[in-house]
Amino acid sequence: MTETASGPARGSRTKGAKSASKGLRIERIHTTPGVHPYDEVAWEPRDVVMTNWRDGSINFEQRGVEFPDFWSVNAVNIVTSKYFRGAVGTPQRETGLKQLIDRIVKTYTKAGEEYGYFASPADAEIFEHELAYALLHQIFSFNSPVWFNVGTPQPQQVSACFILSVDDSMESILDWYKEEGMIFKGGSGAGLNLSRIRSSKELLSSGGNASGPVSFMRGADASAGTIKSGGATRRAAKMVILDVDHPDIEDFIETKVKEEEKIRALRDAGFDMDLGGDDITSVQYQNANNSVRVNDTFMKAVESGGKFGLTSRMTGEVIEEVDAKALFRKMAEAAWACADPGIQYDDTINHWHTCPESGRINGSNPCSEYMHLDNTSCNLASLNLMKFLKDDGKGNQSFDVERFAKVVELVITAMDISICFADFPTQKIGENTRAYRQLGIGYANLGALLMATGHAYDSDGGRALAGAITSLMTGTSYKRSAELAAVVGAYDGYALNAEPHQRVMQQHADENTKAVRMDDLDSPIWAAATEAWQDVIRLGAKNGFRNAQASVIAPTGTIGLAMSCDTTGLEPDLALVKFKKLVGGGSMQIVNGTVPQALRRLGYQEEQIEAIVAHIAEHGNVIDAPGLKTEHYEVFDCAMGERSISAMGHVRMMAAIQPWISGALSKTVNLPETATVEDVEEVYFEAWKMGVKALAIYRDNCKVGQPLSAKKKEDEKAEVTAKSEATIREAVEKVVEYRPVRKRLPKGRPGITTSFTVGGAEGYMTANSYPDDGLGEVFLKMSKQGSTLAGMMDAFSIAVSVGLQYGVPLETYVSKFTNMRFEPAGMTDDPDVRMAQSIVDYIFRRLALDFLPFETRSALGIHSAEERQRHLDTGSYEQVEDEDVDVEALAQSAPRAQEPKAVAAPAPKAEVPAPKQAHTSAELVEMQLGISADAPLCFSCGTKMQRAGSCYICEGCGSTSGCS
């Protein structure tokens, strides 16, 4: 059971606590004596109304919430909807940022006093004010569970990252299912290594064959799919790892590849296989990230082309030898095909392990940034790096080293205090976390900082600056951990692990010494980091350390948006244009504020900067921008667009940061759709050579399912499949039995001409019908006459038209051509078909809406915007006979009862100055650059999500696919 809040056993009041120590002296950083941070800012009321753009429904509404006037609309919306506690409309509901921050900060301060962290009440007050100031001004943020739970009557879970364990027994496997389910229930994620479970090639004690870990993954996957969401917080996340020497490793590698093939086959047969679709749940292994844990022996065998042994889980004997290079190739082929498995480098991970005497590092959390002992957890916090950049507006920049170090000390102190009062989902995790006190300080906005300082993300200067900041952050964290050990005691497992912990600290310090200094920005940071590591070695030898782990780089999904960060975690900027929501409604597109800063740093004059920014606003990139030197183009390279950062550019940045991170880095290396299996092999192999601990890859468009698909009932799907197959069979039989007769259209025929845009590509479609109202021909106009595309469209139109005139039913074309996926794809300007996977997909959805009867297209899952709204209101797509009366009655009564809401309703799309169909920066980039970001749509608000580390984040409402 989880311990209660009242007893002294809740904390780790180790040797020192109150009686044997003086406590910490807390230094002021931002605050003024006698003045509360709240009194130094201007506050204003805001109305938070969040809608689903697909149907206009209101997802969340709370009016009159109080926030500082400098907070962005997006940050206000996300913090209010995600983090305020209490039911909306009740007196218990929080109504402003002051209440939220007080709930957390006062809990931390009280616990710090109770457990002897502060030298005096005055130090406790400074701590409270400094912590409140830093949260108020978005200088840093705790991970989401802190905002959800701290200071509330519910269990005060502060950790976002969990690692479980499972042994080779049915009791342990069933415990795994239960423990994982409890973590999912709370909206968090967990990971574990299944390599202790004997393989399917080994025998049970009874003499029969074992099931193997892959079979047990099915049960856990089904459980995760059932317990998919932690209330209204976020979807759960899950990691499954298998060692490369496990005899079932090939089955593990191929699990998702086989399921992806199944998805394609079922989709082609008419089943709803989109994300969130009715039938996707029949596919297995879709709720977890899979990773293979490789060791140096295996990677050296890959390098030399040698053999590698797969070992028995029971005896340790080699039971099969495989070609290492062929196995590595299978991993790369699987990742190329479906983005799984990722890779983790076991020897590198355990080389940096501070507590090897307590056990090896076997697993990780779902996003791979937390790596430590089994049955432990880690609470995270991330700093907003742009808050520490000093810029005089004339190109003179510096990083505020002293203030950064002081904030790190403040945050580490707070994070350690939280373990004293925190609750945990299982007794084992609670005991181990209190014994080792793992922390995960990190940062966000690195991409924005690099661009603002004139550094290309993929450059020696950019990597030097990133490495220097990371080294200073972790060095300062361990320095404060050693100071805390003098005050409240070292972590319980330190005595057993003192020698290896000190060895790892020396490894960090040695890497800091070897690092190359590049320019006037990173050199002072490296100097401060060197001093910090010297203090770490000295103080650690004297006091020990309070924490077994200090730092990770998390995805910073929701919290990154809450801090109004332009970039998440260690990611580069998405693009040079942003989608900005405005107070009072509406939106606009802006060029990143980091661009002018970068241009000033590079020496451009204000007139030149104005011209370059205007060019970016129009074209979305810097190519051919007036006056911009070509050698400076790389500074403005982004994750998407005309000049996107290469895959190895991402890997090199990870390698530049990893030596000063206690854990690992949440990062997915994106590859273009044209990437080869050899490209995946190169990423996985070079990352090992460079000392990265773990990564995953994602090749654009390698996944089948995408959300935003009208749902189909089981009987409707069966009917569509049977009808489509019967139609095709009948058509074939007719060809064999007799020659069909072509029914030509009369000279004068009714028609509809539709202009459309799909993924930024414009076109026109003319559909002409017979007088008896049956579609007879289609003409498509794309691009200029004489171009290849125009010619192909003409030929396609003629082929379809002739088929229609020879009697091929329109529904046959619709069933075959909808869901066909290729570029251009993405947003359309058609309210009835908001997303299209290709031009062909859009054309036949539009034709179905215009020419097929409701019953036929409804069975195909194609509905108009009006019908989808009706389904949300009534549960049915069909129009009822008295619907007009009900609507009229509603219209007569609603305005008088809800007059204020009518005034504050979202403005019509035509009144929004930003592009009509863009709802986030990701969608804006798609429209400007004519490309498609291969990311899911948010289940809450329907907008295109964007990648954050190994997960996805919705810029519109803050929902994530499993990250905090």
UniProtKB/TrEMBL annotation:
| Residue intervals of the Ribonucleotide reductase class II vitamin B12-dependent N-terminal domain | 49-138
Where on the tree of life does the source sit, at the highest rank? Answer: Bacteria
Q: Does the keyword Nucleotide-binding apply?
A: yes
Q: Which residues form the Ribonucleotide reductase large subunit C-terminal domain?
A: 159-698
Write out the GO biological process terms: DNA biosynthetic process
Q: Where is this region: Disordered?
A: 1-24, 894-919
In this chain the TSCPD domain maps to 749-849
Arranged from A to Z, the UniProt key words for this protein are:
Cobalamin, Cobalt, Disulfide bond, DNA synthesis, Nucleotide-binding, Oxidoreductase
Which residues fall in a compositionally biased region of kind Low complexity? 900-918
Entry's Gene Ontology molecular function annotations: cobalamin binding; cobalt ion binding; nucleotide binding; ribonucleoside-diphosphate reductase activity, thioredoxin disulfide as acceptor
Which InterPro entries would you find in this protein's record?
Answer: RdRp_reductase_class-2, RNR_2_N, RNR_lg_C, RNR_NrdJ/NrdZ, TSCPD_dom
Q: Does the keyword Oxidoreductase apply?
A: yes
EC number(s) on file: 1.17.4.1
Query: Under which main EC class is this enzyme filed?
Result: oxidoreductase
Cofactor entry: adenosylcob(III)alamin
Q: Which reaction does it catalyse?
A: a 2'-deoxyribonucleoside 5'-diphosphate + [thioredoxin]-disulfide + H2O = a ribonucleoside 5'-diphosphate + [thioredoxin]-dithiol
Reported function: Catalyzes the reduction of ribonucleotides to deoxyribonucleotides. May function to provide a pool of deoxyribonucleotide precursors for DNA repair during oxygen limitation and/or for immediate growth after restoration of oxygen.
Q: Which family does it belong to?
A: Belongs to the ribonucleoside diphosphate reductase class-2 family.
PANTHER family according to UniProt: RIBONUCLEOSIDE-DIPHOSPHATE REDUCTASE, VITAMIN B12-DEPENDENT RIBONUCLEOTIDE REDUCTASE
Q: Tell me what this protein is called.
A: Vitamin B12-dependent ribonucleotide reductase
